[in-house]
Amino acid sequence: MRRRASVAWVLSVVFAGAAVAQAKYEKPSKEVLEVLHAPQAPTPFLSPARDTLALAQPVRYPPISDLAEPMFRLAGVRINPRTNAERSYTRYWVGMTLKRIADGAETPVAFPAGVRLGAPRWNARGTLLALANEAADGVELWVVEAATGKARRLGDIHVNPALGSAFQWMPDQETLLAKLVPSDRGAPPEAPLAPAGPKIQESSGTTVASSTYEARDLLRNSSDADLFDHYTTSRLALVHVPSGRVTPLGAAAVFGAVSPSPGGQHLLVERLHRPYSYQRAWYRFPKEVEVWTVGGEKLETLASLPLAEQVPIRGVPSGPREHQWRATSPSTVLWAEALDGGDPRAKAEKRDRVMIKPLDGPARELMQTEYRFSGVQWIEGGGQALVSQYEVDRIWTRTYLVDADVPTAAPRLVWDMSADERYKHPGWPVSRMLPSGAWAVLRQGDFVYLDGMGASPEGDRPFLDRLNLRTLAAQRLFRCERGVYEESVAWVGPAAGTFITRRESPKDPPNFFLRALAKKPAKGAVAGEAAWTSSLRPITQFPDPAPQVRGITKRLVTYTRGPTASRSRSPSTCPRATSPARGFPPCSGPTPSSSPRGRPPGRSRARPGASPPSRARRSSSSRSRGTPCWTTRPCRSSGPRRPSTTPSSSRSLPTRRPPSTRRSSWA
Length: 667
Hints:
CATH class of the domain at 40-188 and 211-310: Mainly Beta
Radius of gyration: 28 Å
Helix content: under 10%
Low-confidence stretches: 576-604, 614-667
CATH topology of the domain at 40-188 and 211-310: Neuraminidase
Shape: globular
Number of helices: 5
Strand content: 25-35%
CATH architecture of the domain at 40-188 and 211-310: 6 Propeller
């Protein structure tokens, strides 16, 4: 008996080893592969001149070789040591076509085979696009001429994208401010076989609870700190696109945010330095906030900020923060300072004060905020701005209209609402790129524009309004019709009333269209509906990537679990689905109709006119085979939207809105 057991054990080990040796990646059925491998629609990037779309071809599913790349987790940033690229996510494009909006003419851009392109950045004139390419030995800097579609690499340099602000256009719109990997950097430091000393963490002196971070992404020892220095150290430089000339600026250092002034004569620079923390991410490290000349000389130190290791939960560091340029002035800096020590639990009549300082004058207080300062949006054509604040406990937002050029003018309350408001949400100000490259709220006379999701009991119906800055009254220019899902994404000619929309329906895949408003409002418009009529012309004609999912329908299935418990599901089935009487195979856990987590009646956030999602989900195998599958709505952020005070100089026309109160149109 023992001998038989031994033989059986040996055979089991042998066959188990053979099975492991023969293991390979399995593929799903042909029907599923057809959906998974369906070509993805290009990502459009609109020129600030509003005449051209750059259609970039994305990679939907990165290969396993991308995911298997080595990665260092250093102080909250994940870096590929081979290329110095940031690896928190893997998204890139492999080709591009330029499409003229006026006549639809397309110009393919010739890139070398195997490129891995980042998001392109248009210059303000709409004549050039700058973009990064992750090559085998580093991240290259490329430029594309919009008129000809010609692409070329700029010099024998590599940019450093590890801490952001890798490159951006200077106000002359033909020079790039870039963070470069130092040419003399050398090999990365090697970890010692034994530590040089003990690792000491001190918790004494802490009086309030502080935010924590995922330990696996933080620095663990001095060796990690050396690696962080090695991979994040950059040299600022100006790269002149027509000539290819590279002009280094200052000494190499670990730079955080870097931005040029709208006037083009100064740089706002964050420079990080030791001591680093083993408990906090890099943006809490000590830093110097400085103003440099465009030649690389330090002109002024705005703030010397210590290590922010103890910041209250949902609080902010004490001292100046969020330094940024005023978009509508050549060289004026704005920042916020906490008046309550940064602690939301502290009793205080005012939480923050907003400071403003011209470089040739003293700093002064712009306003004090009752809630926490959360962002500013400058309005083009003057000193007016929308200043937002956020109350943590109530989840409440307020937005005021202020005028920085008239210090005696009192702030005017524009919006006062819950951050979770949907039905009565006024929308988000529409922004555009100014000739300097800075972003500001688009203004036509006394009006600014707002676009929103238009939540209603029947689902989202996006809208486009205009707001009178004198009376603060809004007029509705456009609202999505019933039966389709259409949202405005960019103005083409505000004075002419032309703008771009993204439109889809249950039968039609998403495409971009040009709408033109009528000259005068229609009579008898229903409250909440558009007061103007508009015409529609297609810009793109992307084919349906997965027509086989168009036949999916939804039905309510009620069933009994146990002796008395009644439950229901809403599965989606293809036309060949089996009958409910024959039973359904299990796909996911039930969603009881009485679930306390369910949305109250009438609070729908669905997109009733949207097309079925073409991106295959986990239930694709059952969907393609004609069996029930539980659908998931396309993601739309519903939480508090924190403003982005430093918008990117390149914006794609999104299929989903970014989670930010600063919802700029890509006009």
